[in-house]
Amino acid sequence: MKTEPVTAETEYEKNPELKKEDIAELRSWMKSQPHLPIVNDEQLILFHHSCYFNLEATKSCIEVYYTTRTNTPEFFHNRDLTRPELKKGLEVLEYGCFPVKDPHGYQIIFHRLKVFEPKHYVFNDGVKLLSMAIDACLQVEGTVPGYVFLFDMSGVKFGHITRLSISSLRKFFLYIQEGMPVRLKAIHILNTQPVIDKILLLVKPFMKKELYQLIHFHREGHMEEVYKSLPKSCLPSDFGGDLPSISNLHESYCEWMEKLQSSFKVEEEYRVDEKKRLSRKGSKKGCPEPEPDLRTLELD
């Protein structure tokens, strides 16, 4: 898998709708917000592309992205794969950034339990590893038409629910809906278990209608439904696909992430400085003002 970061020049070639003057305007706006870090054009392009080139939506996304990453250390700090908790997380969970995109050019991110005992599952570490997978794809692939999340529920039971916290769920859904710089196109949940109803009861209060509409549930033994959206050419052999097994893909994923380790350390330097945030009437320091929902998720 690639490890070299994508360049702004490549992005302009890929995206005819992308305008250099828009990126210049975003850079000027960020400089007017002293609490925000100064980032490169490649990062600004990711934000702008994820918001379908809407400037005001992009500014909102940037604000949520950096504020959330600063104020949620349990997800976005100490992203070092040599740390004991993340090494264990990679033993309990399996991940993959599939090497073959779907027919629409969407990047597929995979996640499932490897160890089924709930006592070994740590939600915050799982989210941290998932965010690292997405960040790695963004760094080396740059903009892509969309992302698809593929989650396998095999082994999920009620004990896993008891290890979730309302606070962590709220932060997680805020980030993926308002701050994650990708065009999320679909979430496929495979091998759904009876416990899914209890999970939905817990998480739906934090989900916007647009996000819920992206979710597709597939019961065990119903892979033909999945193939209508994700053909065998972009799925692992465990699901009847042409790619290597999930265990092999996970091993490759871990090796790839280790090669990108230095980039995760550098990323942690880009955080909000709350002492420099300009006070705004009616807003609390450290919290972005409530804004209209400008980020729209395009449904296929």
Provide a descriptive summary of the structure in words:
With 300 residues, the chain is of the alpha/beta class. Helices cover 45% and strands 9% of the residues. The chain has 14 helices and five strands. It has a five-stranded mixed β-sheet with strand order 1-2-3-4-5. Strand 2, helix 7 and strand 3 (147-152) form a beta-alpha-beta unit. Helix 3 (41-50) crosses helix 4 (55-71) and helix 4 packs antiparallel against helix 9. The longest helix has 19 residues, at 123-141. The chain is globular and about 55 Å long.
Query: What level of helicity do the residues show?
Result: 40-55%
Strand content: 5-15%
The biggest sheet amounts to: 5 strands, mixed
Q: Kindly report the oligomeric state of this protein.
A: single chain
**SS element count, helices:** 14
User: What is the approximate shape?
Assistant: globular
Question: Quick gist of this model?
Answer:
This protein has 300 residues and is α/β, with parallel strands linked by helices. It has 14 helices and 5 strands. 45% of the residues lie in helices and 9% in strands.
Main attributes?
disordered C terminus, 9% strand, 14 helices, 5 strands, 300 residues, alpha/beta, five-stranded mixed beta sheet, single chain
